[in-house]
Amino acid sequence: MEHRASETPEDGDPEEDTATALQRLVELTASRVTPVRSLRDQYHLIRKLGSGSYGRVLLAQPHQGGPAVALKLLRRDLVLRSTFLREFCVGRCVSAHPGLLQTLAGPLQTPRYFAFAQEYAPCGDLSGMLQERGLPELLVKRVVAQLAGALDFLHSRGLVHADVKPDNVLVFDPVCSRVALGDLGLTRPEGSPTPAPPVPLPTAPPELCLLLPPDTLPLRPAVDSWGLGVLLFCAATACFPWDVALAPNPEFEAFASWVTTKPQPPRPPPPWDQFAPPALGVTERDLGFWGACPMRTGRREAQAWRSGQMRAMTAKVVGGRGQMGELP
């Protein structure tokens, strides 16, 4: 795993596997968390940017100067210290890539919260841009190309994001010249045991949706490719392709039948028939590949597959003006 700056903990053994390196980094960082009585000791807290079950994100201005930051707060009564440290360490290690939200040095803890700062995205998240209609074709291409590059970077370091969705894509300008994948709370080393999502999610792949507690599957980059395919559909249409990727959901059944039928019917089911062939090909490759590269694929085979998959997708998306064809 690579580090962005010299103030991050010392470099690890290049032969060390990702899980071991991350655990060692967490242990080193544990002693570097600064206790403060209140976040106001170091920041001027401006306003709330978002909230969830385990905490919230605030817009804050450091007292020492510099640009405003997004301050992520995790409730200490709900989040394990090790979970907080892992998310912070992963964020620091991958911050070198512009397609991943930069995590800043200096983790804190107050009597109620764990906290760390990240760069602030002025335009919010991608879901906020999809309230009424999908993005124009050029913006879809920009978003998907940047995210594909970010995921390839993560995967090359033995990590899987595991939560690719519009809410976790931060937007820095209205024309999506830069977007970044954030929220690394579920990011784990490849091969980590992964349970089913706690509730049905439209972004979760079928193999995870089929799991029943206490069963798990080893986490593979295929999860991120599936999520990126769903996100591409969302960016183009402003809606999810299905509520859950399982039968008897009619939208998923129609798509799965079209993908798996041999020979494949020439016309896809609605609303997929609104996509021009090049755009449909990108989406189908992400969503239709599941049986070809399941989560049980071996590490070496999966690594070779994912590198080619992400590069091919990026080339397809940015390969020229109008190459994706008209989007809905």
UniProtKB/TrEMBL annotation:
The keyword Transmembrane does not apply. InterPro entries: Kinase-like_dom_sf, Prot_kinase_dom, Protein_kinase_ATP_BS, Ser/Thr_kinase_AS. Pfam families: Pkinase (PF00069). The keyword Flavoprotein does not apply. Keywords: ATP-binding, Kinase, Nucleotide-binding, Serine/threonine-protein kinase, Transferase. Residues 43-328 form the Protein kinase domain. ATP binds at K72. Gene3D superfamilies: Phosphorylase Kinase, domain 1, Transferase(Phosphotransferase) domain 1. Belongs to the protein kinase superfamily. This is SH3 domain binding kinase family member 3. It comes from Nomascus leucogenys (Northern white-cheeked gibbon). The gene is SBK3.
